[in-house]
Amino acid sequence: MYQYDDYDRRIITERADQFRGQVSRRLSGEITEEEFKPLRLQNGLYMQLHAYMLRVAIPYGLLGSAQVRKLAHIARTYDRGYGHLTTRQNLQYNWPKLTEVPAILDELASVEMHAVQTSGNCIRNITADHFAGIARDELEDPRPYCEILRQWSTFHPEFAHLPRKFKIAVTGAPGTDRAAVRFHDIGLRIVENASGERGFEVLVGGGLGRTPMIGEVVREFLPKRYLLSFIESILRVYNLHGRRDNKFKARIKILVSALGIDEFRRRVEEDWEASRTPELELADEEVARVSAFFAPPPYETLPANDRVDALVLGRDRELGNWVRNNVVAHKVPGYSAVVISVKKPGIPPGDVSDTQLDAIADVADRYSFGHVVVTHTQNLVLPDVKTSELPGLHAELRALDLGEANANKLTDVITCPGLDYCDLANARSIPLSLEIAQRFDRIDYLNDVGDVSIKISGCINACGHHHVGNIGILGIDKRGEEFYQLMLGGSPGNDASIGKILGRALAQDEIVDAVEKVLGRYLDARESPDERFLETVRRVGFDPFKEAVYGTADLLETTGDSP
Amino acid sequence: MPTPTHWIVTGNFTEDGAVAWRRPDGTWSRRIADAGLVVDEVTAKALSATARASEQREICDPYGIEVQVDGHMIDPLTARQRIRANGPTIQLRRPD
Questions:
Q1: Is A245 on the interface with B (CB under 8 A)?
Q2: Domain-located, residue A503
Q3: What is the mean pLDDT of residues B66-71?
């Protein structure tokens, strides 16, 4: 993984020092909250309902074991013994004291981490496919380009005050999108052109939030050397023409939609022709230099005939289900990637305790070359595990309460912090997720229902990605009380679609029952066990599900309702 | 939404972000039960403005909220403020 050079180290250390001074001035009353707020946000420090929240950047989700141990230490020493994995591959602490945040930033800097680019109207932490570098379906590892983008974007003076936040995601697997690139301000897909040359398909204007949109192709093939100059032109057009009068209409998707993709493309190409200079061209040597940090670990030469099938079908059913659901094929024979699910009944989704983090670091050292990846689905990945060692690893994870066999299954719910923590939320998300986890915690049922995603957001800002859940749940406020809209049909992948509202909003005590009714109707309606939930919804439409949830009579009343 | 009987002023402590409730004497408490009650929104706004101007070192972003008072119980009218007053509704790993 990438190692800081002197320049990286200096700017992060200096930033931590600057923030210490700013905190000191705030605490003394020398500066007001109004003056302090933009400074703290530039260092990832939010004010939530009950406390500050510090969001730590994890570039493209990749952590070394020393960093994981440091995150555990911070959770134990400065917070309440846990961290929370976010839907942008970061980790946040929910209870830091302002007085201690400078010390936390020093701790982070000591392991080449920080909290910049996790808030504010800047280019946010770059995200990527969580199986980057190991996926069998990958054309090329996207992480070197993520790292190049990180270095280019950090403290970029021209883009420090954009109209609104700006998110970039990269995937190197053109056949399978695990990074939701179509729902980012810029999505990059590594592709090959007709001549076999590799470059990027560039998508722009995707996003969730109050106006969900699927990104459109602004350039079908961009030679790699132009990555930075072309993205600069996109950002320059956005910076110049994006709206600043209304924060709800300030994202680039609104500009792209208003101009139309053809006019937006014309402006970008015009700027690019006029502004691109040789110094922004990515030289092969620079790509090679950065790529060297992501060189494969020293894999052993192992037989291709691994034991995955035998484990899936073996007598140990707990192990078999875990291998079936949480183990992913690796590009190197004899190795597997393992998803560590942190979605367990009784535990808020994405929360990981300090002791678990310490143990995960140890496990990563012993089983996976010391690497851990945070997924945008709020889980962790051990990317390089010998397949022969899966049983031992599973036993250790079980002992840590991290052996749930539910990756990509019904109870692997993406959940925003919601009204239990978040100042923006209208309704709670975590209690719904906990109820779902408890209600459907039956492995045979999970396997029968198959791959179906539930995503829950406590407000329209959509941190829980509800628009792209096969089943999406959105919390809304009705006269000060919590209600929930149920949505169906969303998908974040190559078959991207935005879910639609099923009917009238439901009360908290109705929503999980409604999910169960939807699933029951799916099981009745699917043509075969191989037909996934999303395929059934697309084939049969919404009416059978409306009837299941609201009843036939209610269906008539609720048609056209816009809660 | 129920009709408010009173208004109180709230914010967050600068030092640790904890929820703060303004007492009748202008000091700040971590317990909603200590909050000073006012009987109209105009007064709550005036107190919030005073706090914003002169108590900003200790408190962030003070504002008034609607409550119902039944005996000694102060009950905020919205789910958001009830959760602010009582803390997260889920079990925390370490309550502190």
A1: no
A2: yes
A3: 94
Q: What pLDDT score was predicted for residue A64?
A: 98
Instruction: Say which residues have a Cβ less than 8 Å from residue A270's Cβ, sequence separation at least 6.
Output: none
Give me the residues of chain A with pLDDT under 50, please. 553, 556-563
pLDDT at A309: 86
Find, among A461, A480, A436, the residue nearest to A343 by Cα: A436
Distance of CA A507 to CAs A431, A432, A474, B38, Å?
13, 11, 12, 32
Q: Say if A484 falls within a structural domain.
A: yes
Q: Are A480 and B1 in contact (CB under 8 A)?
A: yes
**This prediction's pTM:** 0.95
Q: Residues A478, A501: one domain?
A: yes
Secondary structure of B24-68 in HEC code, one letter for each residue? CCCCEECCHHHCCCECCHHHHHHHHHHHHHHCCCCEEEEEEEEEE
What is the rounded average pLDDT for all residues in chain A?
95
Q: Do B88 and A33 touch (CB under 8 A)?
A: no
Percent of all residues in chain B with a pLDDT value above 70, rounded to a whole number? 98
Structure tokens at A411: 């109870």
Q: Answer whether A353 touches B (CB < 8 Å).
A: yes
Q: Which two tokens stand for residue B74?
A: 């102060």
Distance from CA of B39 to the nearest CA of A (A): 20
Find the CB nearest A421 among B61, B88, B93.
B88
Q: Do B89 and A48 touch (CB under 8 A)?
A: no
> What confidence tens digit (pLDDT) does each residue in A535-546 have?
999 999 999 999
* A182, A315: one domain: no
- What ipTM score was computed for the predicted complex, to two decimals? 0.95
- Say yes or no: B92 contacts chain A, CB-CB below 8 A: yes
To the nearest whole Å, the CA of B14 is away from the closest chain A CA by 7
Residue of B2, B5, B37 lying closest to B21 (CA atoms): B37
Cβ contacts (< 8 Å) between B80 and chain A: which residues?
49, 419, 425-426, 477, 480
Report the distance separating Cα A81 and Cα A74, nearest Å. Answer: 8
- How far is the alpha carbon of A395 from chain B, nearest alpha carbon, in Å? 23
Beta strand extents in A344-470 (DSSP E only): 351-353, 371-374, 380-386, 414-415, 454-457
Max Cα-Cα span within chain A: 69
Shared-domain flag, residues A282 and A142: yes
**CATH number of the domain within which A216 lies:** 3.30.413.10
Q: Mapped to the 3 state alphabet, what secondary structure does A320-363 carry?
A: HHHHHHHEEECCCCCEEEEEECCCCCCCCCCEEEHHHHHHHHHH
- CB pair distance less than 8 Å for B18 and A430: no
Residue A520 lies in a domain: yes
B1 in A contact zone (CB under 8 Å): yes
